[in-house]
Amino acid sequence: MRKSFDMSDERLSVVPPPASGKAENGPAPRRVKIGLALGAGAARGWAHIGVLRELEERGIFPDVIAGTSIGAVVGGCYAAGKLDQIEAFARSLTKRRVFALMDLSFSGMSLISGERLKTSLEHEVGGLLIEKLPIPFAAVATEVGTGHEIWLQRGALDLAIRASYALPGIFEPVRVGDRYLFDGALVNPVPVTVCRALGAEYVIAINMASDMMYRSKVVADQLAAATAGAPAEGPFGGRGSAALEVGLLPRFFERSAAGSAPNVASAMVDAFNIVQDRILRSRLAGDPPDAIVNARGDEIGMFDFHRAEQAIAMGRDAAKRALPTIFSHIPAAALSS
């Protein structure tokens, strides 16, 4: 189920002429309306920050943004003018702080309730409405039960972001209106189609799933020994996780030894990655982007959120590799706002 879109954005404009009022070499190139499709990818999604930084430095600023899962987190913060804040948060994460954010759920719907993440997100973007953002934005989520692809374009930004990253079995589904929603990666891992529906003429896809396939890594069990007996710090200096969480969560996310039967976490993560990979290939084949940034970094596991510095650098490198393709299709002069 998809909502209708307002295509009346006036930012598709002509580049202003020189100060003299006349163009030196004929008419100025028309301003191309650019869309960024920020894909899913769990912890490696911090690379979106590096991609956005590199594109900005090259004069590439999006007119519309669509994001799925971690792409909705970074894309929503960028659209709200909060990229500095989300980058500072990402760089502040340590293994201890990551697990301090993962509060156990006893509802029977998931492993993690997500209340601590919700509090952190509300601290930065609470009270912001999607329809009031400086840059048009949409987050992709999946409706529980029907499998409908839901494009969240109105209402609370923090709620839309939470719905988009609610990985089934890990986070509780998020209620939005009369629907329960979870991770949009199940239906549209890199939302190129959403950018086009928002009016983008040129879509740059940022793909965090390349090379990952179903080979993602997870946090090893050594964390239990490293943090045993010490209360975990919250992301902003507060005290957090109970001893039960410190012992249980690392074991849940530990990958099964080679050749042994998979544990619950390995089975869930591998199944999700396989499904996401197959859907991604199909969606990109059906509606390919005009340019794609593939962030390659298989050494960053699905739950390695504490490795933001490495992921951001990886994103910058990926964007640099894609620049020749981007500029071959868009005249540099047409990128200026």
UniProtKB/TrEMBL annotation:
SUPFAM superfamilies: FabD/lysophospholipase-like. GO terms for biological process: lipid catabolic process. GO terms for molecular function: hydrolase activity. Residues 1-27 are annotated as: Disordered. PANTHER family: NEUROPATHY TARGET ESTERASE/SWISS CHEESE D.MELANOGASTER (PTHR14226), NTE FAMILY PROTEIN RSSA (PTHR14226:SF76). Residues 36-196 form the PNPLA domain. It holds the Pfam family Patatin. Residues 1-12 have a biased composition (Basic and acidic residues). This is NTE family protein rssA. It comes from Methylocystis bryophila. A motif (DGA/G) lies at residues 183-185. Gene3D superfamilies: Cytosolic phospholipase A2 catalytic domain. It comes from the Bacteria. The active site is at S69, D183.
